[in-house]
Amino acid sequence: MSHDMDISPFFRSNSESHGLHALLIGVSHYPFADGGEEPVAETFGIGQLSAPARTVIDLAELLRDSMTNLAFPLRTIRVLASPSQEEIKKNISLATLPPATLENVQSAAKAWQADAATSRNNATLFYFAGHGIQRSRGDSVLLLEDFLKPKGAATDLAYTVNVNNIYNGMANFRTFPKLANTQFYFIDACRSDILNLRDFETQETAPIFKVEAGGIDDRIAPVFFASAAGRETYGVKGGLTLFGEDLIACLKGSASDKLIRANGQKGWFVTIGTLADAMSKMVNAFNARMPIPIRSLNVDKFTATALEQIICELKAPPKVRCTLNLKPPEVSQFASIRFDRPGVASPMLICNPSNPHSCVVDAGIYAIDAFVPSTLKSLYPDLSEELVNVKPPFFDYALRFA
Amino acid sequence: MAEIRQILGNVFEMVKSAPVEIRDAESTLVNRSTIATIGNIAKSLEEGQYIASVLLPMGTQIVQPITINSDGKIDFKNFSEHIIKTVKEAGKNRVVASLNNHIVASTIRSAVSAIPPNIYRAASPVLQNHTVADLLESLGIESQGPNTLDGSMSRVASTIKPFPTTPLDDAIYIRLFKDTFKYEEFDSFDPLKPLATSKSGRVSIENCNSFAIILQLLQTHEPALNLIIPPQSAVVVSRRIGTIRPCVAMIFGVPLVDELVELRTSGSLSEAVSVAQTLRSTDIIDIAKSNKTAAIAAAFILLRTGSFNEARETIHQLAATLPAGMDLSILTAELSAREGHHIEAARGFLEASSQGLPMFSTALGYLIDRLRFYCSSKDSEQSSTTPSDSNRTWLPFSVVDFTNKLKAAQPFALRCDFSMPFTNYTGLSPAKADDTEMDSATIVATGAARLNVPSMRTSSKKEIEMPEITEAQITEAQIQELTKLIQNLPIEAMGPKQEFCRIWPEATKALSALQKILAFVPGVSVFAGPALAIVAAAGDAASSAVCKKQ
Asked: Which pLDDT value is given to residue A293?
């Protein structure tokens, strides 16, 4: 479906049937913030980023290249990106994308909504990476490229949009009775608040949609926030955002599980539930490696039904990185580990493993045991066989000799 | 064939709400359940071999084959034995962790006490450099939020201030208030008397009254933290080593509800849903007979993660049987909104917001979200170009009504940590949320009581009482050596430079010994190493700066 104000979509399929419509926005470059070309006097500590634009282009390419795996056939992708110079140097094509200004976002969002409003069987995906703040819980204000643009802006939040406005506007079923029933939201932006903006707690953001109240909102529409309320999100300088990196890995298989569909079909699927579980584990694992737990994750607006919603399917079992820790450490000099998948593959025997021992195996149920040479069994009795469920995103296991 | 309840015996109560996954021989997930309801799922599965995977409350996962017989029964013997063995093993490990924590806490406190305040303060710039910004810089990571030096209210930044500027600044003081918004000084003769110190060294404050109370925690250089404790609920205060802010755990006292809250908080959504879906309205009504607070909390969880029909039935029954209250009003209003009855819902939220603050942070979240939603919906309606739009039925309400209520509630929501189930916010007066940091004089003027909360490693996992605790992995010799070193340190030493120079070499021995042991001890907080290093660095810096000159 065309739209008068529409910017050129990054991708549009030839098919007019129902499917997935994605709107991806990445803002690294903030010209009016610290380090920008025209910084204003009061920037509230907002500076330049170097990961969001690259993250959205990587996600767009993944969606485009994984078309056949998606539960909803891909129909459109709109990408708005305001890249940093560093990102452009690494990927010149970023410079050709429409910038994530308020005007462009408003235009693209309305076109995206119109495309999604052709069938209730449609699905939508919204992803924003960039700076964000919050005014209250459940609130997430997304800062666009022209944030702090002087030009007589009515409020400090004139060039920002509110996730709630987008979320609630996408439930305007009176105006758009065929609006997509399945909607995925990924908000990769901070939700910490700015002390100086606390005086403007009810200050309004720029509107994207007019919000209607009425009827039953029975959408499957979970929101994945890359940070809990009051917390921050992070990106690798010149790389991907941490949340974006996890999301891409999860869609490639790190969040998959072997499930059975209502029609009896078995397969490796990524669902909202498996995605939430895997991303939580990845965040927890990241924090465990840090002296300070800096990351967080919040999944909101989900229901039991939503958790079962399939996002994509894998063609083969995912590979899982396993880390086997032997305790006490010295036992690794003598121990052997048997990692067995009865009836599926030959047992894997690991002699004198490094500690921790790392390997990559197909996901599935395994039997694991460990033993030492007979002369040492009095000190280190054999570990009896245990069943373990090796599933993505990773498998960490401790083999504790007495 | 024996039921799982019988085989598990007294372990059953500990693990009954643990989520269970059932997979077929090809590892396909075919059903989810809980320990308590696992017997029921046999009826929906064909005869054969399956693999059950259970996540126990202490975070351990066990996987065990089970067989469903032709008569639809499950042989639970091996499964149950595995659970019992794992629970007992976890009990042993918990003792080790507890012992380690005690030693770490004692050593650090002693070492910190050995440093005179003026010297400690002189060394503090070194300590303050251990900031989030430094950590991120070293990792090549950038924050997608405002620079923390420029006014961000980042919760991460504020929770990890490495150490107080003087060794005594970390004291915690408390006041208690009856009910929300009623400003009454804490009085040791207060008939509430809900204070009790737990045997583990944490401080547990249980509200045994029929009304909510507000617990206020006061510390220098921190805003006063208010925690609403609903009736029949408790707050446990502890503190991690190396941090100023206390850790707060909130407990409903109903294992099923506490388990659900824990699963939700830890991000285990699939497990939370599998447990919530076993909940029936009758279960929650049963809970309400003994604990109304927990029943309302369970209803909130059910509305989000369970069956909508069960949630509707539950909320209607609770509304019909429990006394009116703000949280129940919000629950009912949210249900109306979900059912599309927005006028009723809007009225409910407006009325609820006139009653003060809800006890549950979830309720506060719903209130704010809906008030903001109705504010913007009303705006849209006013500018609507379709006169026939049914939103015209909003006329009974004014935008100003919603805006005023939002303005009143939002300062509290803005300062609420929603990862805690009970409503919480900062501000010296519980009637006014703000961010003013406390100083000693202000705290003294409040007449607040001092709370003795020793620093210790805290776990995000809820601890459960374990049977048969017998073993420890640290050798007796190591413990004795450490104890001796610690005992030789003058606790609360606040003497002059000479005293510090005499004490510090002994203090560093204790720290060094402890660091060596920590390398071999599982389960010690990741904070322990850096905390020891920071204390050692501060002491060494002070020692080289002060002692050599004498």
From this structure: 78
User: In this model, does residue A277 exceed pLDDT 50?
Assistant: yes
Cβ separation of B135 and A291 shorter than 8 Å? yes
Task: Using an 8 Å CB-CB cutoff, list chain B residues near A257.
Answer: 29
pLDDT (tens digit per residue) in B10-35: 888 888 888 899 999 889 999 988 88
Specify the fold of B255-426.
Answer: 1.25.40
CA distance B363 to B369: 10
A357 and A252 belong to one structural domain? no
Count of structural domains, chain A: 2
Per-residue pLDDT tens over the stretch B452-461? 665 544 443 3
- A397 lies within 8 A of chain B by CB: no
Provide the 3-class DSSP secondary structure of residue B99. helix
Question: Can you give the residue range of the structural domain that contains A384?
Answer: 319-400
Chain B contact for A46, CB < 8 A? Answer: yes
What's the CATH code of the domain at A370? Answer: 2.60.40.1120
Interface residue of B30, B142, B461 to substitute, partner A, most A CBs within 10 Å: B142
Q: What distance in Å separates residue A181's CA from the closest CA in chain B?
A: 15
Residues A8-13: contacts with CB under 8 Å, at least 24 apart:
A8/A98, A9/A76, A9/A77, A9/A78, A10/A60, A10/A64, A10/A77, A10/A78, A10/A79, A10/A97, A11/A60, A11/A63, A11/A64, A11/A74, A11/A76, A11/A77, A12/A75, A12/A76, A12/A77, A13/A67, A13/A73, A13/A74, A13/A75, A13/A76
Range with lowest mean pLDDT among A152-156, B64-68, B180-184, B208-212: B180-184
Residue A3 resides in a domain? no
Cβ distance of B65 and A387 shorter than 8 Å: yes
Does A168 fall in a domain? yes
Both A164 and A16 in a single domain?
yes
Q: Are B339 and A216 within 8 A, CB to CB?
A: yes
Q: What is the pLDDT of residue B494?
A: 33
Say yes or no: A291 and A361 in one domain: no
Instruction: Work out the number of other CB atoms within 10 angstroms of the CB of residue B325.
Output: 20
B-chain residues within 8 Å CB-CB of A288? 526
Is residue B497 helix, strand or coil? helix
Structural domain includes residue A350: yes
- C-alpha of A387 from chain center: 31
Q: Backbone phi, then psi, for A123, in 5-degree steps?
A: -135, 155
Residue A215, classed as helix, strand or coil, is coil
Q: What own/partner pairs with CB < 8 Å and gap ≥ 24 does A288-291 have?
A: A288/B526, A290/B135, A290/B526, A291/B135, A291/B526, A291/B527, A291/B529, A291/B530
Chain B residues within an 8 Å CB radius of A364: 27
CA distance B158 to chain A (A): 11
The residue type at A233: T
Q: Where are the domains of chain B?
A: 4-75, 99-164+472-550, 171-252+429-454, 255-426
In this predicted structure, the answer to whether residue B103 has a pLDDT above a threshold of 80 is: no
Statement to judge: residues A187 and A225 lie in one domain: yes
Q: pTM for the full model?
A: 0.79
Last residue of a domain, one of A290, A314, A338: A314
A162 and A41 together in one domain: yes
Residue listed under structure tokens 């006890």: B359
> How many CB pairs below 8 A link A and B?
254
Rg of chain B over CA atoms, in angstroms?
Answer: 27
Assigned domain for A140 exists: yes
Q: Does residue A224 sit in the same domain as residue A104? A: yes
Cβ contacts (< 8 Å) between B152 and chain A: which residues? Answer: 45, 192-195, 232
Q: Look at strands A123-129 and A182-188 and give their pairing.
A: parallel
In 3-state terms chain A splits into helix, strand, coil percentages (rounded to 5) of 25, 30, 45
Could you say which of A314, A332, A362 is where a domain stops? Answer: A314
**Contact status of A313 with chain B (Cβ, < 8 Å):** no
Q: Flag if A201 and B414 touch (Cβ within 8 Å).
A: yes
